[in-house]
Structures are given as C-alpha cells and as structure tokens.
Amino acid sequence: MAQPHVQVTGLCVAARGPGGSEALIVRDVSFAIPKGQVLALIGESGSGKTTIALSLLGYARPGCRFAAGTVRIGSTDVLSLDDEELYRLRGGQVSYIAQSAAAAFNPMKTIMDQVVEGTAIHGTLTRSASETRAVELFRALALPDPEGIGSRYPHQVSGGQLQRLMAAMALITEPELVVLDEPTTALDVTTQIEVLRAFRHVVRERGTTAVYVSHDLAVVAQMADRIVVLSEGEVRESGATADILERPRHDYTRSLLAAARPKPRTTDEPREDTPLLEVRDLGAGYGRVGADGLPEIRVLDAIDLTIPRGATLGVIGESGCGKTTLARVVAGLVPAARGEVRFDGEPLPTNLHQRTKEQFRRIQIVFQNADTVLNPAHTIRSILERPLAFYRGVTGEAAGRRVAELLDLVKLPGSLADRRPAELSGGQKQRVNLARALAAEPDLILCDEVTSALDTVVGAAILDLLAELRRSLGVSYLFISHDISTVRAVCDDILVLYAGRKVESGSRSALAAPPYHPYADLLIASVPELRTGWLEGLPPRVTIPIAETHAAQPAGLCPFLDRCPLRVPGLCDRLAPPRQRFPSGKEVLCHREGEDLARHQLNTAITT
Amino acid sequence: MIAERRHWATRAWALMKGLPLAGRIGFALVLFWALAALLGPSLAPHPVGAVVAMDVYGTFTAAHPLGTDYLGRDMLSRILHGARLTIGLALAAAVAASVTGTTIAILSATIGGWIDEGVGRLMDALISIPSKMLALVMVASFGASPTLLILTAAFSYTPGAFRIARSLAINVRTLDYVQAARARGEGTGYIAWVEIFPNMVNPMLADFGLRFVFVVLLLSGMSFLGLGVQPPDADLGSLVRENISGLFEGAPAVVMPALAIASLTVGVNLLIDALSGRSSQVEQ
Known about the structure:
The structure holds 2 protein chains of 2 kinds.
Chain A: E1 6-16, E2 22-33, E3 38-42, H1 49-55, E4 64-73, E5 76-77, H2 83-89, E6 94-97, H3 101-104, H4 111-115, H5 117-122, H6 127-140, H7 159-171, E7 177-181, H8 189-206, E8 209-214, H9 217-223, E9 226-231, E10 234-240, H10 241-246, H11 251-260, E11 275-289, E12 295-308, E13 312-316, H12 323-331, E14 336-343, E15 346-347, H13 357-362, E16 363-366, H14 370-373, H15 380-392, H16 396-409, H17 426-439, E17 444-448, H18 456-473, E18 476-481, H19 484-490, E19 493-498, E20 501-507, H20 518-526, H21 534-537, E21 579-581, E22 587-589, H22 594-600
Parallel strand pairs in A: 3-8, 3-9, 6-7, 7-8, 13-18, 13-19, 16-17, 17-18
Antiparallel strand pairs in A: 1-2, 1-4, 4-5, 9-10, 11-12, 11-14, 14-15, 19-20, 20-22, 21-22
Helix pairs in contact in A: 7-8, 8-20, 11-18, 15-16, 15-17, 16-17
Chain B: H1 2-17, H2 21-43, H3 75-111, H4 113-127, H5 131-142, H6 146-173, H7 176-184, H8 188-196, H9 201-224, H10 236-242, H11 252-283
C-alpha cells in the first residue's frame, strides 16, 4: 500500500485535572487514512473522539497537551508546527466542520462573506474566483438558489442549510483533509438525511479525505470507508465499515451495536382499557391571549389522546412540533387555551394554582436534561427526600430508608445519596431524576426526551429501567421523543405530531405498516439504517414546487402542506383534511385514501 | 466548638492559598481590619478620649506609633476605636441593604407577573436618588444618629442590591430544576428560598462586599462633612476631618485615618475580585 495520506501514530493527549495532576485522556491512538477515504471516529461522550479530531488541526483544548505521538498530513508533521505554520494549516490544508452551525456563523455578516473568508485569509484566490467556487459548492451541496443564497444572512436560512453552508466554508480552500465533528447530531432526522446526502456527494465527487466524528453508528455506516471505535481514549477496534457492522470483534463494539438497534421492551399482553389520561381538543400556546381566547403563538391545536392505565403513549415529532409543550400542559406548567384534560375520570385544571396536592403527586414530569434538572446546591438525599416530605409527610429515618430503596430501584449505589449532582455522571443524574419522580409514587410519568442527552448505551439502560418499573409498579408513561426507534421500542400507542397537529396516531403494530401519513412516512424513511449503502439506495426526494398562495389560505389546512410530496393541488390547499380511520385502527389526518397513500409510500412494512 | 473553629481556620487557609497575589493582599487587609474592629479597642494603648501628649500633630514616635492628633491624643488608639465604628456601622447598613434587596428580589422574581414589574419600576425610581443628597437631607431633617445613618445608608443601597439579586434570580428561575419544583406543586416560599436562593449566594456575597465598600465611603464622606458620627465618638471619616488642619504640617494624624479607609476599601475590593474571578473559572 502506498504511503497513507493522513497518519496518526501513538498519539497521547494529557489533561490537567482539578488537583493539578495530569491524566492521559487519549492513549496510544494510531490510524491511517489513504487519500480520498473517509474515516469515522466513533465512541461515546468522553471517549476522546473530539480530542483526537482536533489534534489533526494541531489543536489541544485549554488544559490539554500532546504528550506523545505524531500526526502527519501529507508531508506535514502537524504537532511540530509553530503558531505561524499552524495558522496556515488550519482552514487551508485542514478544515473543520463543527456540530452547531448556528454557533459557528456570525449573524452580522452575509453568508458569502463568511464562506469565502478562508480563501481571503490564506490569500489563495481572488474574491470573484472564490465566489464562483462558492456557488459551485452550494450547487454541489444541493442548496436552494445557489446564486442568491450567499447574499442572505445566517438567520434567513434553515438549520440544515446552515450546516451545508458550513461545509462549503470548510471546502472552499480545497483542503487536503476535512474534519467533520458530529455535523448532523443537532438536526432533525428529516433534515439530517438531506445534509448527509449532500456531504456524501461532495466528499465522493471531490475525492476529499475526511474524518467523520460521531456517536451514531447508523450515520457513520453511510459516510465512512473505515471505522475506528474508541472508548476511554483508546482504540477498541478498527476496520472496514462493513466488517465492523457485521463482524464486530470487541465487546464494546457489540454493546454499541446492540444499543443502536433497540429491542422492543413492551409486551402485547392484553391491558385494562380504563383511561388514565384523556385529552380532548387541546389547544395551547404562548404570548398574549387574543379576542378569541387563543394565544398569539399557537403551539398545539386540536390534540386528542388517551392513555389507558398502565400503558405507554409515545409522542414523536421534530423539534418545534409542540411535543414538549404537550407534556408541560399536562404537568400544568403551560395553561391550555382550549379543550379539556381529564385525569382518572376527573377534569384536571391546567393551571398550577387550581391543582390539588394529590393531583400534583399522581402526575410527575421527568425533564430532558438531567444536567440542569437537579439543583446543584442540594445533595441527592435532599433532592429525593423533598417529594417524600412534601406529598406524604415522610421525614427522618423513614425518609432515609425510602431514599435507599429509591436509589436501589433505579440501580444506583446508596453511597451516592450524600453527593451533589455535579459529582454524578449524566446517566446517574438521569436515574436520580427518575427516582425523584418515583418518590411521589405517581400514576403517570411524563418523560420528555429522557434519553436524548445520553449516550446510546446509557440511554438503552434507562429505557430498560423504565420498562421494568412499568411492569413492577404499573405506572403509565407519556413518552416524548424525536427518535422513532426509541418510541417503537417502549410504547404501546404512538402519536405523530407535526407543527402542533396530530397527523397520525395508532397502536405500535398499526404504525409499523403503511399506509402512513406522508409526514410519518418521511420520518420513518429518514431514520438511517445500520447497514452500508442505505443512503445510496434511497429514492431521490420529490418535492412539488409550492404555489405561492399563502395569503388567502383558509384555516385548518394540512400543516404538512408545504413539504408534502403527495399533495393534491386544488384539494389540499383549499380544504381542511379529514381525520380518517383505517382498518388497522390508526387515525391519519389526510385527504388521500389509505390504498392511495400506501401505493406512493417510501416504506414497506417494518419488521420489529 | 474548637474543632469547628479549626475547621473554619483551615478552610480560610485553603481559600487563601488558592488566591492570586492580589487576592492574598486583599485577604490579608480584610483579615487585619476585621481583627482591628473586633479586638482593636481592647488592644488600644490609651483610652479613646485621653489627652496623652504635650505636642499636637506629633510625628511617629515609640510612645505614639501613629503620632498624635490636634489635641495631643494617641492616633493609634483613636484609629482602632474609629475602625470599629466605621466597620460596625457599614456592616450593619450593608447587611440590611443586601438582605432587604435580596429578599424583595427573590420573592418578586418568583411571583413574577405585574408584581415583579411594579416592584422593579419602584426600585428603578429609588435608584435614581443620589445617595449622598438623600443622606444630607435625612441628617438635616432628623439630626445625625448612628441608627439614622445606618437606615439611610441601607435605604440608599437596597435598590442596587435588589437589581443584582433580581437579575440573578431571573436567570435561576428559568432553569429546569425550578420548573421541576413548580411542576411538583411547590409554593413560592419554598421555590424562592430552597431552590433559587442557594444558587445565587456566591455572587450576592461579592455584591455584599461592594455594598460594604460603598457604605464605608458614604459614611466616611458624611463624617468628613461633619454630618456623620458626632463627637465624642469618631469614625475614620471624622478623624480625617478633625485633623484636616494638620495637612499643612504633613501630620500623620490626617494621613493615617485616610490611609485606613483606603486600605480597608481596596482590601475588600481586591478580595472580591479574586473570589469572583475564581468562581467563574470553576464554572467554566
């Protein structure tokens, strides 16, 4: 084999701890990338993948230093460069695409100014030549209006477009190596797929050598030629993508693969049908309340749902679709503008002040971000004792015993009780968060993206715990997530939200086969599969150009109208869609008949 | 009790060791003045009002290390007594201002809505009153007494403390753990004191130090104008005033109390800067 283009040998990175002692966070990492190939660094948070990626730019984060090893790109020994040479390397020879494009763009400058900055700094091209090249890149990245998009400002384009624009920014200097650090993690799945497609096209077409950092094996399977599996700063396994996916050798790789393919955690055993939570025609939002009694910014509209006792309802949708607001309305944090919520047969006030302590106790909410949901000033013990004292008046020794039981229930050692949240890992904090909800002995737990901020393996353990608690304690869940495979794994019934409207709902089995609502279809088809070649196999997305008739649109039209590939001109943009019930028992908000939908759909039946 | 005290001493020592040089200087100055206020009067070589020397505006001698004042009294003893008065009055006023400001701020931020709005506007109105003018008017109307001075200073600095505390509380209020407490059905008092307050103590302590410095300067200024602490008592500000005619002789009697005020305020500032710098580093 010829000399590889990028070679990392025996890389060690040391970080200074709080006591001033040094510890190696990256230990003896070696890999090589031949020219024009894509290598993926995969691992959980803290595995050192970003630290290694940054070392390719000769950058060590504050408090870190390169302890040993070499990084060679072409003929350049990156770690021996001085500041002046690094300045020329970065953005010229090696470029970097960060996770959050929104944070990487300056809102005060036009996109074109920022995209061509690299060539201006390195003085490689004239302004007009680099603008021509930028437009070519915009076209290659499938951005809309490639000639005009450069004159817009960052806030005028969508998140997915901004991410692709950042790729253009990175590629404009024709670097020898591109480092992509979790470039699609912050995007919705339906957006992610577009961005991945664009990245893949550009990288393949230009023969760029790239390093793709991610925690998501399914995404990596689409992008990379080779995979390096990392944990705790060490290489666990490396090999060709297909080999790693199909014949993993290391236990750690196997656990990653297992967590990426969630197994069903519910049983289809018959259940009681007494409704615990019923929501009818719910509307909610924020802002000033208008003359019609509805708030200015409407987040939820005409939501109906029922959670039978002991069952789990999954709510799925992309960011901004109103799923968190739904949980907050049920929890009483956001007042409902319209409709009614009934809990265990009784009407439930949606205003906090009108609820009884018993109602508070029976409905507990578990927030998404375990890092911010536990008060940093309190110990775990006092966090868990509070609901005991507040709802039940349990204090003193009895409370101490109960805290130990609760910690045991969520599989945490009792010795954690006297620690503070900052001393716990993310997964541990999420367990404490759950234990606090359980301390109230609730009937319903509202889980708002409880695994989203966690690593896959840790998240899978939390899902197992939720399923186990459901069996042993008989609690019901309203389970909110953006991840369809998670929802499928834990929920009995599923509800798909789009722009605050319920577009599809039904049992888990009904949602595993077409016909789907066009949005649900797109959502399901956008989840990357854990095999190579999935992305190439997808049919190109058809979008019908939108007729500019927004001004006189009647109310209640289909919320997915603008993006719908199956829209019927003259019908969908005139009449509100009916709520159809299909023989499988699912409800779909669409004009098209079931068979008609199924014929056009991307997905066939899903085997779970 | 002794174990407890040793515990505090070791903590103070550990704190000091972690500080940069400027912070250590500030720490030493603050410690010095705290001890002076606590023990000074019992260490003072002479009674505060006793005329002990024949020459006025005497210079540094072994008998009178800081010289003598315009009546021939021992300056060291006068400063030790004055420091207790200055620090005591300022501490009382600063505590009153910070406690009142923080309490109103947390409650107002927790309750929110139009109450929060109303209280905020009222405080904005109060903050526009110049503190020295207010103090002069108060003394002119009611006469100078330590209680009145404390009340006036506390009143002047409450809106400032309120503003800082409210902006901190507003930030904490939106955090998830406060939302979680609301969803649990907790009352306003619990959310204010148990959930919000502990997470704003550190910046509020820094703010308290600043308020203390402001009050020291206000009270000293009042005393310098002859409207603060009245004879026979003397705080540091009145010591400067009564010996002002010694300025032309370069007498230590006027320089030393001025230096005392400067070192006290600079010391507190240095310490606060070092502490808040350190806590923001920890957060990063």
